[in-house]
């Protein structure tokens, strides 16, 4: 795949490293640098590329001929990523999106800026995905669903048809949302939780933790501790 556009990645954490891999190996972007806020700048290179201060990045890599991708996780319910997204736009950058070549995305799906859509996502017809949305690997986004801005969806989440996810939400692994359900903004849906009716804003949903049984595996299977 020919790389015809130059990209600066904001961040130097594990997510930034993953973003570098995907953009480098599966996109038309050439990553040329990383940018980190000055107070968090702890190294000057990553993968042989410069790591510069976010405050100075526009002077070094002008927005006229560079795009930007904010590779930050869901800290403070996505507020950190959202703030850097807004500041990057204020600097004049176009925010790039990555959609895996191994994702299934129907032809009329609308995807905003700074999207990070991993492999094995299935995104059905008439879905709308807002700005600054992360869809980690293996999710099902049902037809006519709408995901708001600054949302993080982890792996193997199922959104049924006509679902609405409000801004800033986080959905944990294996969460399930039933048909025609609206989840208000700022909700945290924990791993394995099933949401079957509308949820007001700023709620936390947690599936009951699995409690270990009163017998160890060693005793159950007759295994000695030294075996």
Q: Give the uncertain stretches in residue-range form.
A: none
The secondary structure category is alpha/beta
CATH topology of the largest domain: UDP N-Acetylglucosamine Acyltransferase, domain 1
Q: How would you characterize the largest beta sheet?
A: 7 strands, parallel
As a percent range, the share of helical residues equals 10-25%
Q: Measured on Cα atoms, how large is the radius of gyration? A: 20 Å
Categorize the overall geometry.
Answer: globular
What is the number of helical segments per DSSP (H or I, 4+ residues)? 4
Q: Provide the succession of SSEs.
A: EHEEEHEHEEEEEEEEEEEEEEEEEEH
CATH superfamily of the largest domain: Hexapeptide repeat proteins
SSE layout:
Layout: E1 5-10, H1 14-25, E2 29-36, E3 45-46, E4 49-53, H2 57-60, E5 67-70, H3 75-90, E6 98-99, E7 104-105, E8 110-111, E9 116-117, E10 122-123, E11 128-129, E12 134-135, E13 140-141, E14 146-147, E15 152-153, E16 158-159, E17 164-165, E18 170-171, E19 176-177, E20 182-183, E21 188-189, E22 194-195, E23 204-205, H4 217-220
Parallel strand pairs: 1-2, 1-5, 2-4, 6-9, 7-10, 8-11, 9-12, 10-13, 11-14, 12-15, 13-16, 14-17, 15-18, 16-19, 17-20, 18-21, 19-22, 21-23
Antiparallel strand pairs: 3-4
């Amino acid at each position: 795949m020919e790389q015809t556009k130059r990209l600066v990645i904001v961040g130097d954490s594990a997510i930034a490293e993953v973003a570098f891999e995907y953009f480098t190996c599966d996109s038309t972007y050439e990553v040329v640098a990383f940018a980190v806020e000055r107070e968090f700048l702890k190294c000057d290179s990553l993968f042989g590329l410069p790591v510069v201060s976010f405050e100075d990045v526009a002077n070094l890599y002008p927005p006229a001929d560079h795009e930007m991708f904010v590779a930050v996780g869901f800290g403070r319910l996505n507020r950190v990523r959202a703030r850097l997204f807004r500041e990057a736009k204020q600097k004049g950058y176009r925010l790039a999106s990555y959609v895996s070549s191994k994702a299934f995305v129907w032809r009329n799906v609308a995807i905003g800026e700074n999207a990070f859509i991993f492999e094995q996502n299935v995104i059905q017809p008439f879905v709308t995905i807002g700005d600054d949305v992360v869809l980690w690997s293996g999710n099902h986004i049902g037809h006519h669903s709408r995901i708001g801005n600054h949302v993080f969806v982890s792996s193997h989440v199922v959104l049924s048809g006509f679902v609405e996810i409000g801004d800033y939400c986080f959905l944990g692994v294996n969460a399930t949302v039933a048909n025609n359900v609206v989840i208000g903004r700022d909700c945290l849906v924990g791993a394995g939780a099933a949401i079957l009716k509308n949820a007001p804003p700023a709620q936390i949903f947690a599936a009951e933790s699995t409690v270990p049984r009163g017998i160890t595996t060693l005793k159950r299977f007759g295994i000695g501790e030294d075996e």
